[in-house]
Design brief:
The complex is a heteropentamer of chains A (171), B (103), C (641), D (500) and E (488). Chain B has 103 residues and is mainly α. In chain B, 76% of the residues lie in helices and 0% in strands. Chain B has a single domain (6-97), classed as Helix Hairpins. Chain B starts with a helix and ends in a 13-residue tail after the last helix. Chain C has a two-stranded antiparallel sheet with strand order 1-2. A two-stranded antiparallel ribbon of chain C has the order 3-4. Chain C is mainly α. Chain E has 20 helices and two strands. In chain E, strand 1 and strand 2 form a beta hairpin. Chain E is globular, with a radius of gyration of 21 Å. Chain E starts with 9 loop residues before the first helix and ends in a 9-residue tail after the last helix. Classes of the chains: A mainly alpha (171), B mainly alpha (103), C mainly alpha (641), D mainly alpha (500), E mainly alpha (488). Chains in contact: A-B, A-C, A-E, B-C, B-E, C-D, C-E, D-E. The interface between A and B is large, with 81 and 70 residues.
């Protein structure tokens, strides 16, 4: 039995995710979209906090909300003139989007729902994700250790920096 | 009332659906990138939720999410660079500009 | 073998052919002609030596117990199909082949000599002699064949030589089409021959004549009573083989090529289309006679076809205006006599006199028909036309020719003592012996023969005396008159050869005597016909024209050869070309080829149709991507769960 | 050692030619290399025949002689396995002859003579390689090696609608080989009994005889159709008229003369030999198709007006006869089939050579626009008549021998179906006569149609050489058939025993 | 914590060393000596590629996260060959005016993407695999956008980037389901936990999405739509790299994932999915290729259809299939690079990329045409060129499974070879048969380009005939036979 606070919190988060997701993709003002996205990201972080992954929630806020959103906002400001809003959608386009979304969600939803008893699983109470464990796992070479991906992603990020430079360079 | 795994997955799925919808309907390339963020985010939620509910003993899903956030950041950065690049070339961020090559 | 030198009769002509064919153009015309003639002369001598030794010698076992033996002088394997079905090339000496050796070499030599004069100055003289050699080779190979397949081989070769010789004047369209027609019609007949051989050899498991004829009962029995469409397969085989013979021998309805074949040089007509090649069919049936006479049905077919042809050809001959055509139809008619004679012959009737009569007639006919043709050649040479209307009164200008032609006419009409009298008499005897119907029928045809021959004779040498202008006809040179004289003499005396002793179906001696009842009747008919012809055609008058007018329809029909050519035209052009070949060609291009082209076009249009998939927009791409992934999952879920 | 086997030189010589041509600088050198190579091949072929006969005479009765095998792709047990029996030997001789004549027939090829001869050599490599191989993989490889040069040979040096024809020919033949490839791999996977070592070697497969019947049922049609396309089997023959019509002379010669034989040879060597059960069961379908080919090709030829089309359809008819005879499944017919391959190869090469020479002079192939050529170019005219007579089966030339063996052999079938088809096939000899005489009559005889033709010249020495070579070969087979049929039937007999 | 485990990945470390050297050279060498950078890169990469052969390690590292076997080793070596050719080929281009300033980045990015592919090949953990995949694809977007003064380059980059991110989202969604089902990202764990597990809808969806994600890299229809546009828009050097190297890596990774991870659910689930995808890929690739006039776009569709053939090695899912796949990739690399070598030589000289511009090329540039023709024949599978052998072997590999369905599949593939032959011949036709007024004049291609083309030509001629190469591949795979133990 969950505490009432948890339940209320869950509903707030869930509704926020749903509502702001929808708003993100339907808002005709691009800056508003970005703002709604920020709310979605916060709500996601809320989920992480709620299920006990505080570190992850923090990363989510720091990287996404702090980093990526800034990038978005800057680029929006760079590329759009104020007061610009998107044209209305054509029915054709809407229809295409809806079919794709429904097809994707439908298939996934059906698959998930068909896995009934697993989906109805509750959260187990004891969870031990302290920051030390995370740190050790991150640099461990044993099973459930992530040293190699950690090193590998550094290469990826380096490559992306170089790539960014290549693209951004004037000449 | 119990909060089951499903109850977390459903918002995530809807988020994913919204991402898909947005990707296909939006015209602004940055809006499309925003939609993509939604999709990636929903995947992250899936991983964490699966980890927490089904396999609480280890942190595979969480770490995947951690790395996925990193990857997403890199992707977004590069994508925005490309969008800016396109903007420089055609002075627009309209995705409909990008249909010169076809068939 | 003592007769092994006979091989030379085949080798000399073929060597001559190759020699003249390859280096002929380098030689002068005269050299080529003389060389060819000399080679032919040598061949003739050898053939005579062989034939005469065979007939009249005794020391080499030609006759055992009064039966003339079939001597296989040589028999080399040429092509092995199976263990027993082997094509061999060899030389079989027996009465008929020996007799044919004489006929062929004699006529061929005469034609060789005659052509020296007749073809003088023609372009392609060397080629002409080469072809003559080829023909002689093929024809000799045909008659000495030891097995049916060898015969078929040479059968084809004579066909080709005939084709080449008919088309000798290859720049003339008429000659070209005549040669083509001759070849194709005979080829069609040969198809029957081939099928007949296939059937026959399948059941009897042999091609060999000696094996087949020495025990004909076993050959017939080997089919084991198998039937096809209600007839025994052996009857089919023999009838089909006869079809080949009928084609070569221009039997109705396969005769149409022969009149056209007259487009060839006249000596060629004399050699090929009167004396030798056209009797190959008769020879073929004679060769297999022991087998044939066991198949009553086939024999009846042979008889009927013979009779119909005889009458038909005689009727047509009566109204033709081209002298070579008249002679051609006359040839058809006479060969039909021989065929009928074989058809009516039965071992039990007069000891199979029909067989002997047929061969006898073949022999005499070869001589006098060659004579007639050569005379015709001389006449054509003199007046430069084939048409009777351009002739008349030639007796004054060409006395030798006149006499020779008259002898020929008398011989063919069956007037004693000319050769035709004896042989035709035997045929009539055989026919009457079988059934009076055939006898009477043939007697009537014999009368018609006398009529049209004398019509021809009078029209050429008497009738009127047209103005020849400065081209006054004159007697032919010596090279041409010598063969005429020689053949005239032969036509006079040939009747006295004791054929009954020499050539019979069972190769035993046969005593013949003139059946004066039959002979008298036929002589009377012939003389009557000659008198009629004399009355009508001796002097130019309007009676024949009036007679023709009185039955114009019949006359025209006969003149048009009862529209057989038109019928063939119709069949080949309207049915085979227009209704088979063209539709097939159309089908090939439009349907078969069209199908493959369509495959290509479909691919191409499919390619055009799917191009929309790649619309250029990213959103379209991901839509397809997602749809693909979702569909993949959905279908798999539906199928598996 | 690989070099000790004479057969390998049939591949090496053309490859050396290829190298020599690549290095040569002038047309003279190109010709010199081509002639040397072609002569070397002829000599090699002669040597092979002599060796082969002497080995046979010495009592060697193994199914294949000169067998050798070198491992190539060890994991799949693919070997470079060589070997010849009587049938392959005669095919090799045929190819050598036609390559030889082809070199002379393309003496004045223009433009790019060097490239032309290089492709020509590649084609020959494929052809010879195919005939000497007894490993399915190598066979198939050489088969395709022989096909692809056709595209460029027709495309670059052809005439008329050459792009279309070249593409059509290539695609259809490759379509056939697509089926073939599947069939071959299928055979490979059933080549040995359960647990045995799979093999590509034809002799071993035949010996194992392990292909299950239900597989034979599918693999047989695949391989037969695959090869049948090249053998111009109805209804897959339509590449042939267009292809031949557009191809340059020597290519037509080589293609009709040798390449189409690959089809018949392959049908026999792979489809029939390896899958006798299915051959017995399914022969009737293909007999029907090939029977149609025979008559259909002949009828189609009757109304064509282009010399090459006439000959192409005639090839359809004659090659149909080859497959037809093969399917009769007895020694005599099989011998006839191989003889027919030989005969058709030579005489059709002769035809195409002459057509090429005539076309080179008159610049038209429409028989309606030509006439009376006999007086203008007697040598070519006589050659054409001889080719025509060979084609319509004149005794003394090769066509007769082949056709008669086929007919007699086919008629040995006691079955009514086979008999009726045989009779149908026999009819083609009449139709053949019709179209051959039609074209001879229109082309060579009669009056000269075009005044310009009167100035034309007769054959030159290299053309004469090509023509005479082929005529001699045609006549040699026609006059001394037992020599050839002996070699062939000896090879065919053990295989045809499978059906007895 | 045993850091010596890094020694299990000598190839990756070597590559990083090369990367580092290039980076340092680019950063610290004086400006005027930078012109030597391309050659420098080629040389040290070549040295690395050779040294590579002494670096074979067998075994797993990081508790099964990374695996090095004979076949991964060989696969990486094959990619090295391709990489080396691409490097040599691009020397001329990278010294051209527009590229010169950024050529350091060009080489660095190429090397990092190769590193990503190494990871894809060796990864035995999905996280590592995803990182490898992203490393292999994200920098490529930057490379595609390399040509700043061409609009197509931007469009191509944007298309590539967006679809790539979308695809990786889908891929990760699929992975999340896999994780939900098994609780591990280790390949071995997943495989063992799926044993006996029912084929739930979730698993099927997961597999479908995983296939879609990897199929995107391999450009399988319908996940291929970016391919043509990107190939067309990207600089030719990048296109050639994209078309061969990344495809080869993806193909191998695909096989590993499907066989090692989902091997247990093989015949029921993904076999049929792959059949459908292969048929679609080959057919649509061919259908699109027919209409193309732009040679790069044309080669894009051709490469799509080739990917379908490569996939036949995947459905085979046996030793022979893997060996044939690797062999096919090798042959495909040399053939396609030969074609691209010619295309880039001509593009560098004249800027022309339309097939129609190739009309009459043989007259003026016989060697280029010859190389192109060999490449086309090899791609079409014409003997005696390598493509024939690779095609034959991949069919043999596929058919070894022996089911009727696979026979039908191969038959369809074979029928498609006819269509593919048609369009390959179109190029040959243009060069050899067609004539034009404005033929590309005779020119001398750069030394580097010629070296690359000669290498490819030799490869096309000899890789097939020299049977030792294929035999070697089979041996390599058999050495690694445990990999397929799950199937038996």
């Amino acid at each position: 039995m969950e505490s009432v606070g948890n339940i209320v919190m869950y509903f707030i988060i869930a509704i926020a995710i749903i509502v702001f997701s929808v708003l993100t993709v339907t808002s005709r003002k691009i800056l508003r979209s970005a703002t709604y996205l920020l709310f979605v990201l916060f709500a996601t972080a809320g989920i992480y906090f709620q299920i006990g992954y505080e570190f992850l929630g923090a990363v989510q806020i720091a990287v996404y909300a702090g980093g990526i959103m800034v990038l978005f906002v800057f680029s929006i400001l760079l590329t759009s003139r104020p007061g610009n809003s998107a044209e209305r959608l054509t029915a054709h386009k809407k229809w295409l989007g809806l079919t794709a979304a429904i097809a994707g969600v439908g298939v996934c939803g059906y698959s998930l729902l068909s896995y009934g008893e697993l989906m109805a699983r509750n959260m187990s109470v004891n969870l031990n994700v302290d920051i030390q464990r995370i740190g050790e796992a991150l640099l461990s070479t044993d099973k459930w250790g992530y040293l190699l991906p950690f090193e590998a992603i550094s290469i990826l990020l380096l490559a992306c920096i170089i790539g960014g430079v290549v693209i951004a360079r004037k000449r | 009332m119990e909060i089951t795994m499903m109850m977390y997955l459903i918002p995530s799925l809807i988020m994913f659906g919204c991402g898909v919808y947005g990707f296909i309907t939006r015209k602004n390339m940055i809006a499309i990138l925003i939609s993509l963020e939604l999709m990636l985010n929903s995947v992250d939620i899936n991983f964490t939720v699966f980890n927490r509910f089904l396999f609480p003993g280890q942190m595979e899903g969480m770490f995947f999410t951690l790395f996925a956030i990193g990857i997403a950041a890199a992707e977004t950065a590069l994508a925005i660079a490309i969008v800016i690049n396109v903007f420089r070339a055609v002075n627009k961020v309209d995705i409909r500009e990008l249909t010169k090559m076809k068939f | 073998m003592e007769f092994s030198y006979t091989v030379a009769v085949l080798i000399i002509p073929i060597v001559m052919f190759l020699f003249l064919g390859i280096v002929g153009v380098k030689l002068s015309k005269k050299t080529a002609g003389v060389l060819g003639t000399c080679a032919m002369g040598v061949t003739t001598l050898i053939a005579y030596a062989a034939a005469l030794t065979y007939f009249f010698g005794t020391e080499q076992g030609q006759i055992v117990d009064g039966v003339r033996q079939q001597l296989e002088v040589m028999n080399i394997t040429w092509l092995e199909f199976t263990e027993n079905l082997v094509i061999k090339l060899g030389i079989l000496l027996d009465p008929i082949s020996a007799m044919m050796l004489i006929v062929i070499t004699t006529v061929s030599l005469m034609v060789h000599i005659y052509s020296l004069g007749y073809m003088d100055g023609e372009k392609g003289f060397q080629r002409y002699y080469a072809f003559l050699s080829l023909f002689t080779f093929s024809m000799l190979g045909l008659v000495v064949a030891t097995n049916i397949f060898q015969m078929y081989i040479f059968w084809e070769l004579v066909g080709v030589s005939s084709y080449l010789l008919i088309g000798f004047y290859y720049t003339l369209p008429a000659a070209v089409s005549a040669s083509k027609k001759a070849f194709i019609v005979t080829r069609f007949a040969d198809l029957g021959f081939l099928l007949g051989i296939l059937i026959l050899s399948f059941y009897t498991d042999t091609f060999d004549f000696v094996t087949l004829t020495s025990n004909p009962g076993a050959a017939i029995a080997s089919a084991g009573g198998a039937t096809f469409m209600g007839c025994s397969v052996m009857a089919w085989a023999l009838t089909l083989i006869f079809m080949g013979g009928a084609g070569k021998s221009a039997m109705f309805p396969l005769h149409i090529w022969l009149p056209d074949a007259m487009e060839g040089p006249t000596p060629v007509s004399a050699l090929i289309h009167a004396a030798t090649m056209v009797v190959a069919g008769v020879y073929l049936v004679a060769r297999l006679f022991p087998v044939y006479c066991l198949e009553e049905g086939t024999m009846t077919i042979i008889t009927v076809i013979g009779c119909v042809t005889a009458l038909y050809a005689a009727a047509v001959a009566c109204v033709q205006s081209d002298i070579k055509r008249v002679l051609a139809f006359s040839t058809i008619s006479q060969i039909a006599f021989m065929i009928t004679s074989l058809g009516v012959a039965r071992p039990e009737l007069h000891e199979g006199v029909g067989y002997m009569a047929s061969m006898f007639h073949l022999f005499t006919h070869a001589m006098f028909k060659a004579l007639l043709f050569l005379c015709a050649g001389a006449i054509i040479h003199a007046v430069h036309s084939n048409e009777m209307s351009k002739m008349g009164g030639l007796r004054k200008y060409m006395p030798i020719c006149n006499i020779a032609f008259l002898i020929g006419c008398l011989a063919i009409s069956g007037i004693w003592p000319f050769a035709g009298f004896f042989s035709k008499d035997e045929i009539l005897v055989a026919a009457y012996a079988n059934s009076p119907v055939w006898g009477i029928w043939l007697s009537v045809v014999a009368g018609m023969t006398a009529f049209y021959m004398f019509r021809l004779y009078y029209k050429i040498f008497w009738w009127n005396n047209p103005d020849y202008g400065h081209h006054t006809p004159h007697e032919a040179p010596m090279t041409m008159t010598f063969p005429l004289i020689f053949l005239s003499l032969v036509s006079i005396v040939a009747g006295f050869i004791p054929f009954g002793d020499l050539v019979t179906w069972n190769r035993e001696g046969l005593t013949t005597h003139i059946n004066w009842g039959v002979a008298g009747t036929s002589t009377v008919i012939a003389v009557g016909a000659i008198i009629l012809a004399t009355l009508l055609y001796r002097k130019e008058n309007a009676v024949p024209e009036k007679m023709a007018d009185s039955c114009r329809g019949l006359w025209t029909a006969a003149y048009k050869r009862f529209y057989m050519d038109e019928l063939y035209q119709f069949i080949t052009h309207k049915i085979i070309f227009a209704c088979i070949s063209r539709p097939i060609a159309w089908f090939d291009r439009r349907i078969i080829d069209g199908t493959f082209d369509m495959l290509a076009n479909v691919t191409n249009s499919a390619s055009y149709a799917v191009r929309k998939l790649q619309g250029g927009s990213i959103q379209g791409y991901v839509w397809v991507y997602l749809a693909g992934a979702a569909l993949l999952a959905a279908i798999a879920i539906i199928c598996i769960i | 050692m690989i070099w000790s086997n004479v057969l390998i030189y049939f591949v090496i010589v053309p490859l050396l030619m290829l190298g020599g041509l690549a290095l040569s600088k002038s047309v003279k050198q190109v010709r010199a290399v081509a002639v040397t190579g072609a002569t070397a091949l002829m000599l090699l072929a002669a040597y092979l025949v002599i060796e082969f006969l002497s080995m046979r005479a010495a009592g060697d009765v193994s199914p294949m002689l000169f067998t050798d095998s070198w491992t190539w792709f060890e994991p799949l047990n693919i070997n470079l396995a060589l070997g010849v029996d009587g049938i392959s030997v005669v095919m090799i001789v045929l190819s050598a002859f036609i390559v030889f004549a082809g070199v002379f027939a393309s003496w004045n090829i223009n433009p790019l003579p060097k490239e032309y001869f290089m492709w020509f050599c590649l084609l020959s490599t494929g052809v010879f390689g195919f005939f000497i191989s007894i490993d399915m993989f190598t066979m198939f490889m050489f088969y395709e090696v022989a096909l692809i040069p056709m595209y460029l040979l027709i495309g670059v040096w052809g005439s008329g609608n050459k792009n279309y024809s070249a593409m059509k020919l290539t695609l259809m033949l490759m379509g056939g080989s697509a089926f073939l490839m599947l069939g071959l791999i299928g055979i490979y996977f059933h080549s040995a009994p359960e647990g045995g070592q799979l093999t590509m070697n034809i002799l071993e497969i035949a010996e194992n005889n392990a292909i299950p019947h239900e597989w034979q049922y599918y693999l047989f049609p695949m391989t037969f159709v695959g090869f049948g396309v090249l053998g111009a089997m109805f209804p897959f023959h339509t590449w042939s008229p267009d292809g031949h019509a557009s191809a340059p002379t020597a290519v037509s010669m080589l293609h009709a003369g040798v390449l189409m034989k690959l089809g018949g040879y392959g049908c026999f060597r792979i489809a029939i030999y390896l899958m006798p059960w299915a051959a017995g069961e399914l022969a009737w379908i293909f007999l029907l198709l090939t029977g149609i080919s025979v008559v259909y090709g002949a009828f189609s030829a009757c109304v064509q007006t282009d010399l090459k089309y006439i000959n192409a359809y005639s090839s359809v008819s004659h090659c149909g006869m080859v497959l037809f005879a093969i399917l009769m499944l007895n020694t005599t017919a099989m011998t006839g089939a191989v003889l027919q391959m030989l005969s058709h190869g030579l005489m059709t090469a002769l035809f195409f050579a002459l057509i090429g020479m005539i076309y080179g002079r008159t610049h038209t192939r429409d028989i309606r626009k030509m006439g009376g050529l006999m007086t203008i170019m007697p040598f070519l005219g006589v050659g054409y008549v001889i080719a025509g007579l060979a084609s319509l089966g004149l005794p003394g030339l090769s066509g007769f021998v082949a056709e008669m063996s086929i007919f007699v052999g086919s008629f040995q079938h006691a079955d009514m179906f086979h008999r009726v088809l045989t009779v149908m096939a026999c009819c083609s000899i009449v139709i053949t006569a019709v179209y051959i005489l039609r074209v001879v009559g229109k082309l060579l005889f009669g009056a000269v149609q075009d005044a310009h033709h009167k100035e034309l010249t007769d054959a030159e020495w290299h053309e004469r050489l090509a023509t005479i070579t082929l005529i001699v070969a045609v006549a040699a087979i026609g006059c001394f058939p037992n020599f050839f049929s002996g070699i062939i039937s000896e090879a065919a007999e053990p295989i045809m025993k499978l059906f007895a | 914590m045993d850091y010596s485990q890094f020694l299990m990945m000598p190839q990756e470390l070597g590559l990083l060393a090369v990367f580092l050297l290039v980076f340092l050279f680019d950063t610290f060498m004086p400006k005027k000596s930078l012109g030597a950078l391309p050659v420098f890169t080629s040389v040290i990469f070549g040295a690395f590629a050779i040294a590579n052969y002494f670096m074979l390690m067998r075994g797993t590292a990081f508790s099964g996260m990374f695996e090095s076997t004979a076949s991964t080793f060989v696969m990486k070596s094959i990619l090295n060959v391709g990489m080396l050719i691409v490097l040599v080929q691009s020397i001329k281009w990278s010294n051209s005016e527009f590229v010169a300033v950024r050529r350091g980045e060009f080489y660095e990015l190429l090397l990092t993407t190769l590193f990503g592919m190494y990871l894809m090949i060796s990864a035995r953990h999905f996280l590592l695999f995803v990182i490898g995949l992203e490393t292999a694809s994200l920098p490529l977007a930057a490379l595609v956008a390399f040509n700043k003064n061409r609009y197509e380059s931007h469009e191509a980059a944007a298309k590539y980037m967006f679809t790539a991110i979308f695809s990786s989202a889908i891929f990760m969604l699929g992975l999340s389901f896999v994780y939900g089902l098994t609780g591990s990202m280790y390949f071995a764990d997943i495989a063992s936990r799926l044993v006996g597990g029912s084929n739930t809808a979730l698993l099927i969806t997961a597999i479908a999405f995983v296939i879609a994600g990897v199929g995107f890299k391999l450009s399988l229809v319908p996940f291929h739509l970016w391919t043509a546009d990107v190939y067309q828009g990207a600089p030719t050097a990048v296109t050639s790299y994209l078309s061969v190297i990344s495809k080869g890596a993806a193909a191998y990774a695909f096989l590993v994932i499907l066989v090692q991870v989902f091997g247990t659910v093989y015949s029921v689930v993904w076999e049929w999915m792959l059949y459908a995808l292969i048929i679609l890929t080959i057919t649509l690739g061919n259908l699109f290729a027919i209409r193309q006039r732009n040679i790069k776009r044309f080669l894009a569709f051709s490469s799509i259809s080739q990917a379908g053939y490569i996939m036949l090695g995947v459905v085979a899912a046996n030793e022979l299939g893997l060996a044939s796949l690797m062999f096919y990739v090798l042959v495909y690399i040399v053939s396609n690079l030969a074609a691209f070598g010619v295309v880039s030589a001509i593009e560098n000289f004249s800027g022309k990329v339309s097939i129609d511009d190739y009309n009459g090329l043989y007259k003026t540039n016989p060697y280029l045409s010859f190389t192109m023709m060999l490449a086309m024949f090899s791609l079409a599978g014409i003997p005696p060129f390598a493509g024939f052998f690779s095609k034959f072997f991949i069919f043999v590999g596929a058919l070894e499974t022996g089911s009727v369905a696979i026979y039908v599949l191969v038959l369809i593939a074979l029928i498609n070879t006819i269509v593919s032959l048609f369009y390959y011949l179109l190029v040959v036709k243009a060069m050899f048969i067609r004539q034009d007024d404005c033929i590309i004049p005779t020119f001398r291609s750069a030394c580097s380009e010629r070296i690359a083309m000669i290498a490819c030509t030799l490869g096309i001629i000899f890789i097939g005939i020299a049977s030792c190469i294929y035999t070697f591949m089979v041996d390599v795979v058999n050495d690694n036979v445990m990999m397929f133990g799950l199937l038996k």
